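Good morning,

Attaching, inline, the backbone tokens for the sequence recovery test we're adding to the shared suite. The designed sequence is right after.
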């Protein structure tokens, strides 16, 4: 049993690259619950109940209009009580064209308002059909999309797709982006 615990506890493996170089890559086990801290860190390669997709697969779905794309990047709104004269620069989000931006729904713990916002955002764009293909994404190495996709699976959505490379992988492939704003209902 000690040997099995040791093997299952390993956090890195050796990877051989095309040019023969060997390096260690993080292997992150899929947690049972939601990630609640360090959201920009190495992510698992899997998500139970969802399908993990590549940039090529995401691009094909986008071109075919074959799925609802949901960006879950956090957004900080302008503070309501910002002192007069304080300069506020709104964060600009460039994401996959046609996406709905459901800001802040990827945290591991959601308050009731954010959970309702998430549920209503999905319902507003997917209707009551829980078989609608939904692609969740954020950025590369971002647990936000993993958490959001996991939550959708828990709510009974059956065609959840997780695009872990997010806008980083999308733009790296030379695919178009467009400015977006968070969904409001």
């Amino acid at each position: 049993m000690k040997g099995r615990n040791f093997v299952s506890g390993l956090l890195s493996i050796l990877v051989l690259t095309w040019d023969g170089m060997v390096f260690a890559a993080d292997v992150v086990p899929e947690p049972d619950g939601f990630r609640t801290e360090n959201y920009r860190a190495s992510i698992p390669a899997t998500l139970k109940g969802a399908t993990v997709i590549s940039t090529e697969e995401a691009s094909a779905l986008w071109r075919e209009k074959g799925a609802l794309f949901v960006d879950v990047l956090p957004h900080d709104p302008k503070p309501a009580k910002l002192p007069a004269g304080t300069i506020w620069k709104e964060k600009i989000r460039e994401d996959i064209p046609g996406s709905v931006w459901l800001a802040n729904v990827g945290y591991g713990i959601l308050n009731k308002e954010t959970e309702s916002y998430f549920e209503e955002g999905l319902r507003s764009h997917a209707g009551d059909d829980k078989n609608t293909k939904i692609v969740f994404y954020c950025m590369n190495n971002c647990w936000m999309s993993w958490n959001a996709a996991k939550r959708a699976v828990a709510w009974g959505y059956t065609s959840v797709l997780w695009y872990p490379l997010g806008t980083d992988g999308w733009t790296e492939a030379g695919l178009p982006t467009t400015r977006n704003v968070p969904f409001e209902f």
